[in-house]
Amino acid sequence: MSIPQAVNNEEPRETDRAEDQFDKLYTFAKLDQYTLKQRLIIRIAGFVLYWLIRAIGATLRFEIIGWEHHTESERLIYCFWHNRIPIATYFWRRRGIVVMSSQSFDSEYIARFIQRFGYGAAKGSSTRGARGGLIQMIRAVRSGKSAAFTVDGPRGPIYEAKPGALLLAKKSGAAILPFSISLDRCWRLPSWDRIEIPKPFARAFVVIGERIYVKDADDDAERQRFQRALDELRERGDTLVSRSS
């Protein structure tokens, strides 16, 4: 966003500077560090993946369990498993949710894919890495935005929750909203988590858990409760898929 120049040449307000900073989360990152071939792949892959999921998403049939746990009246940290990124991106689109994006070639086209659906991408610097991205997310959530975490990403192990979301919840004061989405038909890519691409006209079971308020991100009992909640939601969704077939 461009900040209008004041007639009396006053300095931009702090709130204007903050808004400008957060607007950058929704803007495609520069690709200067990549080769020409890599830049083309990033642009094409992000564009194709967006239109693929948008077209398929319009044909999906969603069944939602636990919607009463969701709220639009407070900031939330949406937590889910990495291999559900495509379907989760489509389901929660156009809410301005901020997502962590790592500094890697693969993450660049994923970031562009989700940004086209109205998400922000928080990235760490080359020197601060994930810590820098987490700081951006904390600031964004404190300012009133919601965030999302793939809790076993970016490299796994699969279905093993890491503590980043708990730390974000503690530092920002926002509640965690755990959820899982299970598909009755999908393609699974040959990645570490076998990421799931929904097939046209698939049924998607969205299971949303109770909101979690974090008091101590380092507490083992807190981490176990978080892991257990995500496991139970995934298992419940997968059970609904098996019963429907």
Structural class: alpha/beta
The helicity comes to 40-55%
Broad shape: globular
Domain count: the total is: 1
Q: Which strand order spans the largest sheet, edge to edge or round the barrel?
A: 1-9-6-2-5-3-4
Describe the largest sheet: 7 strands, mixed
Please state the average pLDDT score: 88
Count of β-strands: 9
Tally of DSSP helical segments: 7
Distance between the termini: 48 Å
- The proportion of residues in beta strands is 15-25%
Whole-number radius of gyration?
Answer: 18 Å
Question: pLDDT under 50 segments (min length 5)?
Answer: 1-16
Helix and strand element order: HHEEHEHEHEHEEEEH
Can you tell me about this structure?
With about 240 residues, the chain is of the alpha/beta class. The chain has one domain (about 15-245). Helix content is about 40%, strand content about 20%. It contains 7 helices and 9 strands, in the order H-H-E-E-H-E-H-E-H-E-H-E-E-E-E-H. It has helices at about 15-25, 35-55, 85-90, 105-115, 130-140, 165-170, 220-245; strands at about 60-65, 75-80, 100, 120-125, 145-150, 175-185, 185-190, 195-200, 205-210. The strands form 2 sheets. The protein has a 7-stranded mixed sheet, with helices on both faces. Strand 3 (about 100), helix 4 and strand 4 form a beta-alpha-beta unit. Helix 2 (about 35-55) packs parallel to helix 4 (about 105-115). The radius of gyration is 18 Å and the shape is globular. It starts with 13 loop residues before the first helix and ends with a helix. Residues about 1-15 have low confidence and may be disordered.
